[in-house]
UniProtKB/TrEMBL annotation:
The UniProt record lists the keyword Transferase: yes
Protein name as catalogued: Glutathione S-transferase
Residue stretches making up the GST N-terminal domain: 1-75
Superkingdom of this protein's organism: Eukaryota
Family affiliation: Belongs to the GST superfamily. Alpha family.
A Gene Ontology biological process term: glutathione metabolic process
GO molecular function: glutathione transferase activity
Domain GST C-terminal, first and last residues per copy: 77-197
Entry-linked Pfam families: GST_C, GST_N
E.C. number(s) listed in UniProt: 2.5.1.18
Metal-binding keyword on record: no
Species of provenance: Carassius auratus
UniProt keyword annotations, A-Z: Transferase
Length: 197
């Protein structure tokens, strides 16, 4: 992938939470991308590409689902997986809004930031606050990929809107709990594979 967050950010988070050591190869020249194409490594001619277990995986959701399944972060049964997918898709929708912010022209940034804040407060964060009301995890009784992606997106939100979680105490407490997990704590340290905004 490129040396930035983008679609690879969530994959890095999930690998880090699972305690997986990984090596990154950054695309810095067009020729590197073209070589991947020529070699047939990119099924749909796009990155990210993750090489794992002798496979070349593309498509972010497929990569995330494979990693989650391999490292026991994908629920106990189909019903739990469906709930994890719903939470993860919602988180992805919110991330997509945030990821587009830096690419907006300066005159459009204030309106886009207002859209992010309004949708986060009205549509997304209340769902997660309710989901954590009577449980230590979003789904079931163990850590899942949805739990890993929630602090990823809330930390991204706080980079743009530092006080956005002020009316969501369950999410704040959950974020603190997740940041204290040894694998995630290590990932949040300077010099880790986590990329800046």
């Amino acid at each position: 992938y490129f040396n930035g967050r983008g679609k690879m950010g969530s994959i890095r988070w999930l690998l880090a939470a699972a305690g997986v050591q990984f090596e990154e190869v950054f695309l810095t020249k067009r020729e590197e991308y073209e070589k991947l194409l020529k070699d047939g490594a990119l099924m749909f001619q796009q990155v990210p590409l993750v090489e794992i277990d002798g496979m070349q995986l593309v498509q972010s959701k497929a990569i995330l689902n494979y990693i989650a399944g391999k490292y026991n972060l994908y629920g106990q049964d189909l019903k739990e997986r469906a709930m994890i997918d719903m939470y993860s898709e919602g988180i992805g929708d919110l991330m997509d809004l945030i990821i587009m912010y830096p690419f907006k022209p300066p005159e459009n940034k204030p309106a886009h930031l207002n859209t992010i804040e309004q949708k986060a407060k009205d549509r997304f964060l209340p769902v997660f606050e309710r989901g954590l009301a009577n449980s230590q995890f979003l789904v079931g009784n163990q850590l899942s990929r949805a739990d890993v992606h929630l602090p990823e997106v809330t930390l991204m939100l706080q980079e743009l809107l530092p006080t956005i979680l002020s009316t969501f105490p369950k999410i704040q407490a959950f974020q603190d709990k997740m940041k204290a997990l040894p694998t995630i704590s290590k990932f949040l340290q300077p010099g880790s594979a986590r990329k800046p905004p």
